[in-house]
Amino acid sequence: KAGVTQTPRYLIKTRGQQVTLSCSPISGHRSVSWYQQTPGQGLQFLFEYFSETQRNKGNFPGRFSGRQFSNSRSEMNVSTLELGDSALYLCASSGTSGTAKNIQYFGAGTRLSVL
Amino acid sequence: AQKVTQAQTEISVVEKEDVTLDCVYETRDTTYYLFWYKQPPSGELVFLIRRNSFDEQNEISGRYSWNFQKSTSSFNFTITASQVVDSAVYFCALNYGGSQGNLIFGKGTKLSVKP
What we know:
The complex is a heterodimer. Chain A is mostly beta strands. Chain A is 0% helix and 52% strand. In chain A, strands 2, 4, 5, 6, 9, 10 and 11 form a seven-stranded mixed sheet that branches. Chain A has a four-stranded antiparallel sheet with strand order 1-3-8-7, with no helix packed on it. In chain A, strand 4 and strand 5 form a beta hairpin. Chain A is globular.
C-alpha cells in the first residue's frame, strides 16, 4: 500500500504570494490532518478533514485554509504569505476501522521557504 | 489544558548504550491516546506505538520498550542497545477524547547515537 504522498517537496515563495500544497492519503483513509513544524513552535495542528468536511481546526489565522475532495485527497492554501510561514508542512491520514484505526500516518512533508 | 512535555531536548549516547526518553502529559479527559513518533533527517514522522488510557501494560517490541504510568502521567520510551540508525528526533503525542485527528506534540528529543 502506498503511503501518504505530499507534493511538492520543496517550495520557495516571496512575501505576499499564495501557495497550495497537496496531500494524497493512504488508500481507504478518509481523515486527513495538516500540521506545521517550525524550530520555534514545534509541531502544531492546523486542521483536519473527514469526508470533505472540516472536523477540527487549530489556532491559525484565516490565511490558512484547506479542503478535501471526494477521493479524500486534500489541499491546503496559505494566502498572503509572511516570512513566519516558512516551515515544514506535514500531512497525515488515518483510517476508521481495524487495529490501525485513528493512527495518523505522515507524509514526508512540504518544505516552504518564504523570502 | 492538554499538554505534552519532553524535558530532554538532546541526548547523546554511544552505540550499544541503553537510553530512555521521557514524556509527561496533561489532560483532564479519562479517554485518551498516547503516541511515539520518530522523525529521521528526511522529515517524515514514523509511527512507533499507540497506547490508550485504559491499557497500562508495558510493551516491548524488539529493542524498543514503553512504560506507561497513569499515576505519574508518564509514557517513557526506552531503546536497548542503541544503534546509529536510531539517531533521530523522537516525539511523544497526545490525542484526547473529542479531538480526533488532532495530535498534541511535545517539543521532541533529539537522539544522537555515536559509533
